[in-house]
Design a protein that fits this description.
The structure holds 2 protein chains of 2 kinds. Chain A contains 14 helices and 2 strands; from the N terminus they run αααββααααααααααα. Chain A is mainly alpha-helical. Chain A has one domain. In chain A, helix 8 runs antiparallel to helix 13. The longest helix of chain A is centred in the N-terminal third of the chain and has 37 residues. Chain B is of the alpha+beta class. Chain B has 5 helices and 5 strands, in the order H-H-E-H-E-E-H-E-E-H. Chain B has a 3-stranded antiparallel beta sheet with strand order 2-3-5. Classes of the chains: A mainly alpha, B alpha+beta. Chains A and B meet through helix 1 of A and helix 2 of B.
Chain lengths: 413, 189
């Protein structure tokens, strides 16, 4: 019996966080997307779906602002014919949707959803390789899309898959490099500890409270962190195939992209996988840069003191608020920025973000060693000179790459 | 010979090249739209009679009926005159001109003892198949007796094909009475 308790706790966490919390958020982010898009475009959006009292002979339906729309959508997806074209590679055709959805949900396991609730941390796996595990598993989802494109045996799908593959590889590098300064700053890879640290000493993008307040070191470190935040956020947009970077599925060029041949629940898995990836991405940004579940301004210690064991729930609520705000930001950007051209996308990844992230790492390193105070003036000058030379070389490479691309484009034209 | 002008892309300033400023401005535009849309103050919301969210009028509850123009072409219907006489004399011109062949008329005589026996004919059956009707208005235009009019009814629905065929009773029900037109058969003239 004693041995069963940890298993039950883990099961409860898995079911609670994945199935009770995240899956409804995924479903409702689709609703939020449709409603918010409609509002931006001066429309109304789905506002009718509710309890259909009229079919029971009553006068009026109850609509709840269309809040039951996700249920209706899900029902539609399940009841639709699951059509498998005869020309596809059946095994991979079936495998691909699972390969998109599963990695996104697996990565949720290391995201801390709140502080501790009756002594139990609100995270499924409190491992000390959090971000690495997320990058490792999230990059698997590219297989789902690529395999889908290939197995569909259709040129448009294939193009979608190839694009997605190239795009993910280019942006994964920037994603990984941009998070290194953050991890250098925290000196820890455990996401729960990172959030606890931020709750105590101020969020990474808002280092205003804590024991020290805004010291010179933190002020100086602020700038590389903001650059990291920009690169990381934009790379997450590219990773999740969201709007300015949704080339793998752009309707205007590729019919439906990699999921052209998919229907019914298999299509739904792709669709939900995209939103799940978006939620994991938002959760990661919130966790690393915006303080995760912490309320901020030094209120966390007070909350833990007054609410005791229930503080975890308050923190969970705060985390969800931040998460939802970020999802809305994703949606807002989607309906603001038009799609990139393919070469622009590649240029942004390889020529701008890659170099910028590398330089950013070095700048952070210099600031950190300088504030530790172990450097003589000569050493400091030498390091700064080294970083500047490195930056100049990087800029030169970027510029020459850009020129090469431009001349190639001219030749083709 | 048309003159060919070659256009060059405009040179972007450094802030434009950074792109972030543009994205920020664009975000403000969309946010402004969202805010105005929620407050019901979108551009054109008043003139479009919006429901208070965006510029949309929410259809079954709110309708555009009183704003329909005079020349609106809705469902075709038969009308009676001041003395409740059926205007149609079943000349079948509308049947012949109807492009999708939606109209079917079976002419009938007016009995001798009738008040309007001098008109001689009225339709025994008059059917318009609303599945076929294209609302072109040619029947109204061709009618020498001004007996058929396109009214403002547009939501013609049914659950079967039979239900979508308007018979004579239904047509007179939609059409109603129309006064103050020609008094060709009228003693008052």
């Amino acid at each position: 019996m004693e041995a069963l308790i940890p298993i039950i706790i883990i099961l409860a966490k898995v079911i609670g966080i994945t199935f009770v919390l995240t899956l409804p958020i995924i479903a409702y982010s689709v609703y939020a997307e449709r409603r918010f898009a409609a509002i931006i475009q001066d429309r109304v959006g789905p506002n009718r779906t509710g309890i259909p009292l009229t079919i029971f002979g009553l006068k009026k339906d109850i609509s709840f602002f269309g809040l039951l729309q996700p249920l209706a959508d899900g029902l539609k997806f399940i009841l639709k014919e699951d059509f498998v074209p005869s020309h596809v590679n059946k095994f991979f055709f079936w495998l691909a949707p699972a390969l998109t959805m599963v990695p996104a949900l697996v990565t949720l396991s290391v995201v801390p959803f709140g502080s501790s609730f009756f002594g139990e941390k609100l995270v499924i796996a409190d491992v000390s390789v959090g971000p690495l595990m997320i990058f490792a598993v999230a990059s698997l989802s590219v297989y789902g899309i690529t395999i889908a494109g290939w197995a569909s045996n259709n040129k448009y799908s294939f193009f979608g898959g190839v694009r997605s593959c190239a795009q993910m590889i280019s942006y994964e590098i920037a994603l990984g490099l941009s998070v290194i300064p953050v991890l250098m700053h925290f000196g820890d890879l455990n996401l729960s500890n990172i959030v606890a640290e931020q709750a105590k000493n101020g969020w990474l993008l808002l280092p205003l409270w804590g024991d020290e307040g805004l010291t010179t070191e933190r002020l100086l470190l602020w700038f590389p962190m903001i650059i990291s935040f920009f690169i990381f956020t934009i790379s997450i947009f590219a990773e999740t195939n969201r709007m300015p970077f949704d080339l793998p599925e752009c309707e205007t060029e590729l019919v439906g992209g990699y999921h052209t041949e998919y229907s019914s629940m298999k299509f739904a898995l792709f669709f939900l996988g995209e939103y799940a990836a978006m939620i994991v991405g938002s959760a990661l940004i919130v966790t690393l840069f915006l303080g995760g579940w912490s309320i901020g301004f030094g209120a966390d210690a007070w909350v833990i003191e007054t609410c005791g064991n229930w503080a975890g729930l308050i923190h969970l609520g705060v985390f969800l608020v931040k998460l939802v705000a970020f999802i809305l930001f994703f949606i807002l950007i989607r309906w603001t920025v038009p799609r990139f051209r393919y070469d622009q996308l590649m240029k942004l990844g390889w020529v701008v973000f890659f170099e910028l992230a590398l330089i950013n790492i070095l700048i952070t390193a210099v600031i950190m060693t300088w504030t530790e105070g172990n450097l003589s003036n000569f050493e400091l000058g030498a390091t700064i000179a080294g970083v500047s030379i490195f930056s100049i070389v990087m800029f030169y490479i970027a510029k020459s790459l850009e020129k090469m691309l431009a001349s190639d484009a001219k030749k083709e034209a | 010979m048309a003159k060919v002008t070659k256009l060059t892309r405009p040179n972007l300033s450094k802030t434009d090249e950074l792109y972030l400023v543009g994205i920020f401005k664009g975000t403000l535009v969309t946010l402004k739209h969202a805010l105005k849309s929620v407050l019901g103050k979108s551009r054109g919301a008043d003139s479009l009679n919006s429901s208070g969210l965006g510029v949309t009028m929410q259809y079954p509850e709110e309708k555009w009926d009183d704003q329909l123009p005079e020349y609106y072409r809705g469902a075709p219907a038969l009308v009676t005159d001041e003395q409740d006489r059926e205007r149609c004399v079943s000349c079948q011109l509308c049947e012949f001109i109807c492009p999708p062949k939606a109209i079917k008329i079976i002419p009938g005589d007016i009995p001798e003892d009738d008040e309007w026996s001098k008109v001689e004919k009225k339709p025994k059956e008059f059917e318009i198949d609303m599945i076929r009707c294209i609302y072109c208005g040619l029947c109204e235009e061709v009618c020498p007796e001004q007996a058929i009019y396109l009214r403002k009814d547009y939501a013609i629905t049914g659950t079967s094909r039979e239900e979508m065929v308007h018979d004579k009773d239904r047509l007179y029900e939609i059409g109603g009475k129309r006064v103050g037109l020609v008094n060709k058969w009228n003693e008052l003239k």
